[in-house]
Structures are given as structure tokens and as C-alpha cells.
Write a structure and sequence with these properties.
The chain folds into 2 domains: about 30-265, Aspartate Aminotransferase, domain 2 (3-Layer(aba) Sandwich); about 270-400, Aspartate Aminotransferase, domain 1 (Alpha-Beta Complex), CATH 3.90.1150. α4 links the parallel β2 and β3. By secondary structure, the chain is an alpha/beta fold. Helix content is about 35%, strand content about 15%. It starts with about 30 loop residues before the first helix and ends in a 5-residue tail after the last helix. α2 (about 50-60) runs parallel beside α8 and α3 packs across α7. The protein is built from 13 helices and 13 strands.
């Protein structure tokens, strides 16, 4: 059904939906399908010309000097840590409110993630981060949470003063702008995600952006086992090419099948943002009188990527917990998400880093209350009606 097919629907718990509204279900159109089929027919399904084309398009879109397509944002972060020279015992400051992959990438590189608290907007708190700097600190990783730009002026200022590298986690932030510059072009490296729920989808996939040409060349090698430049062409119609192993690397490359999706997804990214902004405004208007804290407005001089619409439940005025709300929405066939449980609340990091409850109070406060609702250009107006009705039916009777 067309997204413009608006129309009020009767509210009430008896209505519901016949089918589950899957959280984060991607919008895949015929252009992507046809491109994938063409890639299959071409016989070139691994890393090849479509990957190179997607890299060029993405580089132009964000305005970076280099863009290296990889298999995931986690791979992008891991390679960025290596390029920053992280060694065993080195510390990397990471916000506690992020997907665990941000911290995992530090561990995989041999470093120690040091968790900083966040603001109520979920973004890294520069004051908390600055207080954690020691002589072993090498890198800081601001995460542009839900698509909102971090306070990058402050972060870049204290990072420069302390001699720290900045690696931006842009998994939520493809369209994010900070004073006219795209996220991912402010620090030394940016790491993007094209996972199935993201604003640009390649099923799995990621991108590293940088203006450092020498680092980019090394990242390309590391992403393909550490082989010499151009090794992906060794089976091309130009004839067999020998390759050299320069340093031990990884198998982190993107495939042409993935890039076939991304090429067309990227071309619609600005139009899709407009649709998500429309849905965002509807949610803000519909939920303003509920016992929730709405997402804050965009900061002046920034653009929010509108990746996640995250509400924070006002538990002091509800007789129901967050997980109960999730169950009620699911019963009404509305998929929802949690972004996130704070990193230090997961058993591995709780034990490894010896954090105790209360250590990162704002991240913990968010962890108990956060709830993400469907937000996608794929949603019809009736889908949005259903989300609104389901949340109101869940929360209104339990307000206190």
C-alpha cells in the first residue's frame, strides 16, 4: 500500500493488526533487485566493480577523501583501531550507551575499552570522557546515537589537546551533519553500517571513511588478508596477477551482491530521510501527552539522521515496566527495539572491566527506559496509525 494512503482507523484493543510489523524491516525496491540479478548474471559476485562504484558514490556523498567498503561496521571499527596503532594495554574511550560491537572492536584489536557516561540524548558526554583520559589513552570513539551528532567541537578540542585519535562510530549516522560536515569526516576515521535495519542497506556491510590516503591504502590491504593492492583483480579478464602478502590481515571485504543493493539505497537516502522526518513529527505529536520523554530537538547547526525513534518511558508515572511494554506491543503485532542495554551491564564487560551498578548512572537510567519504535520509509500511514494506537493502548491505562 502506498505510504500516502492516510486515513484514520478505529482505535481500541480489539482492532490490532493481522500481521507483525517487523521492526527495522528494510525497504527493498525493484532497482535493487534488478541490480542484484545483473550482478549474478555477470558472474562477478565477490568484491569487484560494483563495490568500487559504491565506494565512489559514498565518498562523494559524505565528502571524504577515501571510502573503503567492508563486511560490517564492526569490521570497520576493528580496522580503524589497528590503523590507529592500538596495542595490548592501550585504552580507548567508548560510550556506555552503544551496541556492544563498539567495545568489542577495541578488545579484538588488543585494547581496553574504557566506558564513559552519556547525556540523556544517548550521546557521549564530553566531560565524562575527558575525565577518563590517562597516559595509556590512545583513541576516543564518539557514537552518533540514533542519528544525532555528538558534541564534536568539545570532543575534538580535548582530543587534540590530549593527542588522541578520534574514530567516529557512524552506524546510525549516514545522513548526520555537524556544522555542514558529514559525520565520519570529523575524526581521523568514520565507521558506517549498512546492516538490514540501517538507513542504507546492503544486508550486511560497512564503510570506513578517512582523508588519510596512506591509511586508506593499508586498510584496503588489511580488509583482504593483507594482500598487495589490486589483489581482487587477480582473476579478472586482464589475466592472472600474482599478489604479495604485505602483513597478516582479515577477510573483511564487501561483495558486489551487497554493493548492488547499496548503490540504489544510497541514491534514495535523502528522499527516505524526508519520509522518516514526517513519521518522526507524527510520533512527536501523538505521544506528547503520554508518560514518556520524547527525543530532543536537533541541535543548532546539525542534522539528525532519524535512524532510531527512541522514547524513554517515564517509569515514575507508569505501573508497567519497559519489558512489559515490549511484550504488549508484540501482542499487538508491533515490533519494537531496545537501544541499548548499557555495555557494562552485559556479563562479559561487567566482569572484565569490573563495573558496578551506579557507575554510569545516565547510561543505566536510559537502559531501563529506552524503547525504539518502527521508523522506516517502508512504513505506510496505516502502519504508523497502528504504532500510535498500540502504544497509546498500552500506556494510557497504566498511567499513574
Amino acid at each position: 500500500m502506498d505510504s500516502a494512503s492516510a486515513g484514520p482507523r478505529p482505535a481500541g484493543p480489539e482492532r490490532g493488526r493481522d500481521e507483525m510489523l517487523v521492526f527495522g524491516s528494510p525497504q527493498i525496491l525493484e532497482q535493487e533487485i534488478e541490480e542484484v540479478v545483473e550482478a549474478l548474471r555477470s558472474g562477478w559476485i565477490g568484491m569487484g566493480p560494483r563495490v568500487a562504484g559504491f565506494e565512489a558514490d559514498f565518498r562523494q556523498y559524505v565528502g571524504s577523501g577515501e571510502a573503503i567498503a567492508v563486511s560490517s561496521c564492526t569490521a570497520a571499527l576493528h580496522l580503524a583501531m589497528i590503523a590507529c596503532g592500538i596495542e595490548p594495554g592501550d585504552e580507548v574511550i567508548v560510550p556506555a550507551m552503544t551496541f556492544v560491537a563498539t567495545a568489542n572492536a577495541v578488545v579484538h584489536a588488543g585494547g581496553i575499552p574504557v566506558l564513559a557516561d552519556v547525556g540523556r540524548d544517548g550521546c557521549l558526554d564530553p566531560e565524562s570522557a575527558a575525565a577518563l583520559v590517562t597516559e595509556r589513552t590512545r583513541v576516543i570513539v564518539p557514537v552518533h546515537f540514533a542519528g544525532r551528532a555528538c558534541r564534536m567541537d568539545e570532543i575534538l578540542e580535548f582530543a587534540a589537546a590530549q593527542g588522541l585519535e578520534v574514530v567516529e562510530d557512524c552506524a546510525h549516522a549516514i545522513e548526520t551533519l555537524h556544522h555542514g560536515r558529514h559525520a565520519g569526516t570529523l575524526g581521523r576515521f568514520g565507521a558506517f553500517s549498512f546492516y538490514a535495519t540501517k538507513n542504507v542497506v546492503t544486508a550486511e556491510g560497512g564503510m570506513i571513511t578517512t582523508d588519510d590516503g596512506d591509511a586508506a591504502a593499508r586498510l584496503r590491504r588489511l580488509a583482504l588478508h593483507g594482500l598487495s593492492a589490486g589483489a581482487w583483480k587477480r582473476f579478472s579478464d586482464e589475466g592472472y596477477r600474482h599478489y604479495d602478502l604485505v602483513e597478516p590481515g582479515f577477510k573483511y571485504t564487501m561483495t558486489d551482491l551487497q554493493a548492488a543493493l547499496g548503490i540504489h539505497q544510497l541514491r534514495r537516502v535523502e528522499a527516505n530521510l524526508v519520509r522518516r522526518q514526517e513519521i518522526w513529527r507524527r510520533y512527536d505529536a501523538e505521544f506528547a501527552d503520554l508518560p514518556v520523554f520524547l527525543p530532543g530537538p536537533e541541535e543548532p547547526g546539525t542534522r539528525h539522521a532519524r535512524h532510531l525513534y527512541t522514547l524513554l518511558l517515564d517509569l515514575d508515572h507508569l505501573s508497567i515496566g519497559r519489558d512489559d511494554v515490549l511484550e504488549e506491543l508484540h501482542r499487538r503485532n508491533i515490533g519494537a527495539g531496545v537501544h541499548y542495554r548499557a555495555v557494562h551491564l552485559h556479563p562479559y564487560y561487567r566482569d572484565k572491566l569490573d563495573y558496578r551498578p551506579g557507575a554510569l548512572s545516565t547510561a543505566e537510567w536510559i537502559s531501563e527506559r529506552t524503547l525504539s519504535l518502527p521508523l522506516s520509509p517502508k512504513l505506510t500511514n496505516r502502519d504508523v496509525d497502528d504504532v500510535v494506537a498500540a502504544l497509546r493502548e498500552t500506556l494510557e491505562p497504566r498511567s499513574c
